[in-house]
Amino acid sequence: MSLDVPALPDPASADALRSDLAEWTVDAVEAVVGERAARALGREQVLPARMAARASSTAQATLTRLFLLGDTVSTRDLDAALPATGADGGTRLGLVETSGGEVRARVDLRPYSAVDADGEARWWVASDQGEAVTGQRLRDDHVLGIGGASLTLAGMTMRAPVGRVLDLGTGCGIQALHASLHADSVVATDISRRALAYAAFNQALNAAAGWDLREGSMLEPVAGEEFDLVVSNPPFVITPPDAPSFEYRDGGQQGDGIVSSLVSSVGSVLAPGGVAQMLGNWEIHGDSWSEGLEAWLEASASAGRPLDAWVIERDELDAAEYAETWLRDAGVTPERGRAAFERAYAAYLADFDARGVRAVGFGMVLLRRPVSGTPMLRRLEQHEGALQEPFGGYLVSALAAHDRVSALSDEALLDTAWTAAPDVTRESYGPVLQADPQYILLRQGAGLGRSVSMDTALAGFVGACDGELTAGQIAHALAALLDVPAGTMLAGLVPAIRELAADGFLA
């Protein structure tokens, strides 16, 4: 049975297509459509971009119209835009179909770029066409392309050089492309044969080496193996019976079972020091948003896999908001059929109410297998503000800072000369006529943009951290200045210094 996906190109065909696409970059697309249309595309409105692209006769405009915007182009124009491949070659590869001198795309194909320590990497990524282009409901085994979630995961992934990477639920292979820049080898798995076929096409097109594509569910294809990094955007969308279901977003388990299973079992494939990074959502049943996550982490520990954990909840939706979000994503709206919409909406509400789901949280999960000993990091926090991009670089620094501080005794901590990080600022608030500020805040410009409220002693300590004096020397000077016993000053400052250093306020 045909999977209705692009054919795997032989090396010569891949080289030819890659050569044809060389000038069709992210910047080239933006130049063709302009800023207004690019913003409209972000809202899934393609008409402004089609109008702009039709006004241009360049090869980049032809490719943009055909593959990004679902427009038809002439065979002659496509032959000119893809001189080495041509319309005939595109047809053989399953990228386009021709009729009466006109060509239309059978896939979404678009340029994509990423920047790492070695510079900019440019790729082209094929996937199924989206609803904004086709105007039709997505097929149940739809293969998603580059979306907001995949970009978020790519941005939060730590890019330190590693040996083996597992891309669990690879989809079209975008995370595997990123991993190929800093890993010796990449294993990419998916339960969907169509997704693996797209991933194989994208690997060949972009000449990405060292991939091992495997079919299977969750961790089954890699049981008994170990990885230095696991990345996953799992099919975590909670989908009750009688609601639209898609293979790329629904893992077939009740509630948040996919994320629960992954958090509690991923430690079995982590090498010592290995890290798992994933997106997910979790049901909130009581007052505590993190209660379920804590239980999953305890299940991992009970199975002999205790893990360091850092979870950041980025958003929280009640049952109705959650239902509306994912029904809209599926193209189920009142405008397209009120009866079908209300039936699916009611299914969501009934399912959540029956199981006592108060809300659903979304966020990022970072898990790490300790090299030795017991876990030292357990941080579950909520953050709705902007994140530093790429966030993965911050996570590398933050974990390193946490590990350094955790290894320091109180004596070593006080014997260290600390320096305030360059992105940190101090803010003071209070009545205009009041001599001393009522509030003193330390604010971080990078990472999570944390802010810390300080008293006079802590503000004085941070203000003196220029790398010249040790923490102990500053603490004793502050004790004398504020007429406070040295022991009291040290007892108050040591835990505060640990927290500030671990969070990156002090270096």
How would you describe this structure in keywords?
507 residues, alpha/beta, 3 domains, eight-stranded mixed β-sheet, 39% helix, globular
Mean pLDDT: 91
**Any idea what the CATH superfamily of the largest domain is called?**
Vaccinia Virus protein VP39
Distance between the termini: 59 Å
- Could you tell me the CATH topology label of the largest domain: Rossmann fold
Compute the gyration radius: what is it?
26 Å
What is the global morphology?
A: globular
Structure description:
With about 500 residues, the protein is an alpha/beta fold. The protein folds into three domains: about 10-105, no CATH class; about 140-185 and about 205-405, 3-Layer(aba) Sandwich (Rossmann fold), CATH 3.40.50; about 405-500, no CATH class. Helices cover about 40% and strands about 20% of the residues. It contains 19 helices and 16 strands. The protein has helices spanning about 10-20, 25-40, 45-55, 60-70, 75-80, 85-90, 130-135, 150-155, 175-180, 195-205, 255-265, 290-300, 320-330, 340-355, 390-405, 410-415, 455-465, 470-480, 485-500, and strands at about 75, 95-100, 100-105, 110-115, 120-125, 160-170, 185-190, 210-215, 225-230, 270-285, 310-320, 360-370, 380, 425-430, 440-445, 450-455. It has an eight-stranded mixed beta sheet, sandwiched between helices. A three-stranded antiparallel beta sheet has the order 1-3-2. It has a three-stranded antiparallel beta sheet with strand order 14-15-16. Helix 4 (about 60-70) crosses helix 5. It is globular, with a radius of gyration of 26 Å. The protein starts with 10 loop residues before the first helix and ends in a 5-residue tail after the last helix.
